[in-house]
Design brief:
Number of domains: 2
Structural class: alpha/beta
Distance between the termini: 57 Å
Shape: elongated
Largest sheet: 7 strands, mixed
CATH class of the largest domain: Alpha Beta
CATH topology of the largest domain: Rossmann fold
Bound molecules: adenosine-5'-diphosphate, 6-O-phosphono-beta-D-fructofuranose
Order of helices and strands: EHEHEHEHEHEHEHEHEHEEHH
Length: about 325
């Protein structure tokens, strides 16, 4: 295996996600196995700009595979948006002799990494660390499965109390501009309706479906709304439904940041470990400027630009199924 890279750095950036630690562990241990020096950068690009860079070894990632959050910490860094900020950051990498970078984060973090590669020729690899699953070139992102399970657990509990009181609950889940957490957790929770930005929803259809259920005395209903839906979230949807269907006892529950925390699921630890291992291997094989993803259980490399720009589409069949299963 050619070994052009000698000193590798890794950072976690943007919104944290469960499994980032498992990915970090895989990167550090693989780099160590191949005899590379490995550096951790604290707080994403902020640590790069501020030279918060430290050498890691196998022991530094012991006992973290099961922990949520990120031991490297994460941040959003305004200075890195400027050419001067990136110059300062790169100078710090040079100071440590770092000649390769692995970025664990979402599309914003990948954009930052891409700029480093374009402007300074630094080989960069991205690992998809986001609960939103909004990156192209992978079936799953690190943290998505855990976030869905957290949302599912919450919705199941909400259904218990909804059932006891014959209530309609509008549950808002995260996802930024993407509706995948809503879609997956909503289907698994048996939601009566799911509102996501990838599909246009006619609110009259939602109202009609609820009125029809009211006639059948089916008063317990869960509607899962993605935070990025066209109506502006659960409170806005509830406002419309309360006006149109005053007989329903309508409650709103916004799940929020609990979806970002917690011990990563088996699937998230597994994909994080595989992606982390392959990221180092790819760099050593002279592959860079790509995101490591998994499609049909196979490791796939997608140019960062495409991973950021292209969008997955939501299968219409899934939404049709939701309606049929909720009838
Ligand atoms: P995420 O990676 O979760 O999408 P952000 O969009 O907040 O998170 O991006 C994380 C960080 O990546 C930003 O705070 C910034 O430092 C860097 N970044 C994002 N977009 C750019 C960009 N266009 N140019 C340079 N750096 C960027
Ligand atoms: O990108 C992950 C995410 O949790 C989104 O789902 C959400 O919209 C956003 O980050 C929240 O960001 P913050 O933690 O800055 O409130």
């Amino acid at each position: 295996m050619p070994n052009k890279i000698n000193k590798l750095a890794v950072l976690t950036s943007g919104g944290d996600s469960p499994g980032m630690n498992a990915a970090l562990r895989a990167v550090v241990r693989t780099a160590n196995y191949f005899g590379l020096d490995i550096f951790g950068i604290r707080r994403g690009y902020s640590g790069m700009v501020d030279d918060d860079i430290f050498q890691m070894d196998s022991q530094s990632v012991a006992n973290i595979i099961q922990r949520g959050g990120t031991v490297l910490k994460s941040a959003r860094c305004k200075e890195f948006y400027t050419a001067e900020g990136r110059q300062k950051a790169y100078a710090n990498l040079q100071k440590h002799g770092i000649d390769g970078l692995i970025v664990i984060g979402g599309d914003g973090s990948f954009t930052g990494g891409m700029k480093l590669q374009q402007e300074f020729g630094l080989p960069v690899i991205g690992l998809p660390g986001t609960i939103d699953k909004d990156l192209y070139g992978t079936d799953y992102t690190i943290g998505f499965d855990t976030a869905c399970n957290t949302a599912l657990d919450a919705i199941d509990k909400i259904r218990d109390t909804a059932d006891a009181h014959d209530r309609l609950f509008i549950v808002e889940v995260m996802g930024r501009h993407a509706g995948y957490i809503a879609l997956h957790s909503g289907i698994a929770a048996g939601a009566e309706n799911i509102l996501i930005p990838e599909a246009s929803t006619n609110i009259e259809d939602v109202v009609d479906a609820l009125s029809e259920k009211e006639k059948r005395k089916k008063l317990v209903n869960i509607i899962v709304v993605a935070e990025g839906d066209a109506f502006g979230g659960a409170n806005e949807v509830a406002k419309i439904i309360r006006e149109r269907l005053p007989n329903f006892d309508t409650k709103v529950s916004i799940l929020g940041h609990i979806q970002r925390g917690g011990s990563p699921s088996c699937q998230d630890r597994l994909i994080a470990s595989r992606m982390g291992y392959h990221a180092v291997e790819a760099l050593l094989n002279d592959t860079s400027g790509v995101m490591v993803g998994i499609i049909n259980n196979q490791i796939v490399y997608t140019p960062l630009e495409i991973a950021i720009r292209e969008k997955h589409t939501v299968d219409e069949g899934w939404l049709r199924m939701v309606k049929i299963l909720a009838s």
